[in-house]
Automatic annotation (TrEMBL):
Coiled coil: none annotated. This is Phosphotyrosine protein phosphatase I domain-containing protein. It comes from Planobacterium oryzisoli. Transmembrane segments: none annotated. Residues 16-59 form the Phosphotyrosine protein phosphatase I domain. It comes from the Bacteria.
Length: 66
């Protein structure tokens, strides 16, 4: 799982094949990055926590139905 930075940064052009890059997905069901709450407040952390909980449930459901 890659939460941050986006896969394009982690798997840059020189470090991975196109086939490998296609295997990487962001954790959110809609494939959008999860915000970094580091400089935020409690509500920002709670929002990210909820996003990750929802994403984990979705991932679990997807894996269990394979």
């Amino acid at each position: 799982m890659i939460l941050h930075p986006p896969p394009t940064v982690v798997l840059g052009e020189s470090s991975a094949s196109e086939q490998m890059r296609r295997k990487v997905r962001l954790i959110s069901p809609d494939n959008l990055p999860v915000p970094d709450p580091y400089y935020g407040n409690r509500e920002d952390f709670e929002r990210v926590w909820q996003l990750l909980q929802d994403a984990a449930k979705h991932w679990s459901h997807t894996v269990n139905n394979m």
